[in-house]
Amino acid sequence: MNATPTRTYNPLPFTDLEPKRFEDLVRQLIYEFRPWRRLEATGRSGSDDGFDARALEIVDAVNATPAVDQDETEDEAAEPGIPDRLWLIQCKRERKITPAKLKGYLTEIRLGPEEKLHGIIFAAASDFSKAARDAFYAWCRDQGLSEALIWGKGELEDQLYQPKNDNLLFAYFGISLTIRRRSQATQIRAEIATKRKLKKTVMSSSADVLVRDPLAEEYPHVKEGERPTKWGVFAPETLSHNGLEMSISWSYAFLDPDTGEWDAADGVPAMRRHHHWRVEDTQLDELDYVARATWDALPEENRAWLKFSGGIRLRDIVAIDDLGDDLFEGVHIYAPFSPMNGPFSCFWRWLELSPYSKRHDVPKLFHNDPSKRIDRFHARTKKTIA
User: Fold this and answer.
1) What does the domain layout of the chain look like in residue ranges?
2) Could you tell me the superkingdom of the organism this chain comes from (predicted)?
3) Which of 54, 139, 197, 299 keeps 20 to 30 A from 286, CA to CA?
4) From residue 301, how far is each of 75, 305, 363 by CA, in Å?
5) Predicted confidence (pLDDT) at residue 4 exceeds the cutoff of 70
6) How far, in Å, are 35, 78, 342, 382 from residue 62 at the CA level?
């Protein structure tokens, strides 16, 4: 069974950010982490005392006054009787940090004589080993810190992929899960609308439809004696998980429903469609006559069709024109064509008993197993396999 490809994202490239931009990202991630009275980007000044941001947490966030403007002094900001908690944030945009190196960064932190550190957040663009994390928490305990957090790239990604931080994910890495979800919802709604219109127009009759490449500016002109490559006339069959299933061609076939043995004049399309772009071919007409004569001579219970069909994905259908034009009055479906497969994303062949078969005790559809193919039709009417 083949694996189904899925759309996934690679690890976020934190190390591609400039060091100061990485500091900005971490600082913006913690804006709503606690109710801050102020959050200062000290690392941007060049003399940071071993940390990149300094924050004051409001202890009684319910009764405290709202956060003050960043231009106010600390004395004006603090409410008497409610001391703020001091947090330090250290950011390192490095691919690897060993336990020894981590401890070295921590020992570089310098506090003022009156400052009491409550908590620390150490964020880095690397994965921390268990030894590094143990060293970090041991140092914090020795310093008497009440709270300590260490954020590696895994923790940073977890936060960035939360819906509330989608704006940061887009601003720093150009990825938006919200936009992607909206795009998916829009696409799904468009496919449902396409399916409904196909059911009302194409599937309401058995008439042929014209499938056109929307970029085929040469429509409807084709060089004399040539068939169009960017549009074609097909018969609709059904709507399924494959999208719009269409009959591309069919051939006269023999089928023994009891043994599964079969044969087909698969080198000749039976009953070629009549339309404006049909190319007259006397040789094909002659072979069609030979194949039809063989088919007519078969017992009715052995008459069958070898059908060749394809599926057009709903997402690939750009528009549906149910008015047609003077050259083809039926429905026009616009879908992009590829050089090899035309508008179809998948193909399949199967055998189907003639609707006039009297065998009602067997299924109507059969697999064309190559090992069960026998000779019933003239070799000229069959495909030559190189």
Assistant:
1) 14-175, 203-381
2) Bacteria
3) 299
4) 99, 12, 12
5) no
6) 10, 15, 66, 85
